[in-house]
Amino acid sequence: MIKALLLIFDPLPTWDGIARARRSLVFVLGVYLLPMLLLVAVSEGYGLVHWGKWQSEIGRLRTFSRHEAVVVAAGQFLLSLGVVFIGANMIKSLGETFHGRNTYAQTFTVVAYGLSPLFLLRLLDAFRWVNPWISWSIGILLSMAVLYYGVPRVMEPDPPHAFGLFLMSALLLALVSGLVRLVTASYLQGKFAKLQAIISELAARLPFQ
């Protein structure tokens, strides 16, 4: 979380440190990304149980059982992880069109750290009065600002291609994360009855009380 805040408020030296460290994919995933996503998932699950979500389809506030909250939080955790892996793969392919020869570890580092403001803002989703699109909009704008400094420092594209690579990378990540937000927000608003039934069934099978 501290690194995410530093990327927002002091991006240049923070990215320079990340670029110099050249951490492996396993390190970035295990030491930075997974703990952050786990914290976000726990906070979202806590909010579902204690404060619930307003569901427009039924016209009332719905609180979730602990089992349902675990399933929903786990699903959002996996979707967020998927956004990072898919985004890293897409940006690696995109970099090749700009004549780059980046490793997957480099693009994964860019995406994992670049999207950290988006994940940080999702902590607000625990509160029922926060519109999920507001937290996403602020988060993705901050992530774009962070990526502006991160893409050239970690991926090191040729100077004429740097801005184009940043712009396309930012737009791709906004698209992928926006699609995921559309699905999760719609579910929490009660718009996917069949999905709700599936999640309730999965929750009923969890072994703990």
Q: Strand pairing plus helix content: what structural class?
A: mainly alpha
Share of β-strand residues: under 5%
Round the Cα radius of gyration to an integer and report it. Answer: 18 Å
Q: Helix amount, in percent? A: over 70%
Along the chain, the helix and strand elements come as HHHEEHHHHHH
Low-confidence stretches: none
Q: Return the average pLDDT rounded to an integer.
A: 91
Instruction: Note the overall shape.
Output: elongated
Oligomer status:
single chain
Q: Please state how the strands of the largest beta sheet are arranged side by side.
A: 1-2
Largest sheet: 2 strands, antiparallel
Query: How many domains, as an integer?
Result: 1
The count of DSSP E runs of length 2 or more, i.e. the number of strands, is: 2
How far from one another are the termini?
31 Å
Number of helices: 9
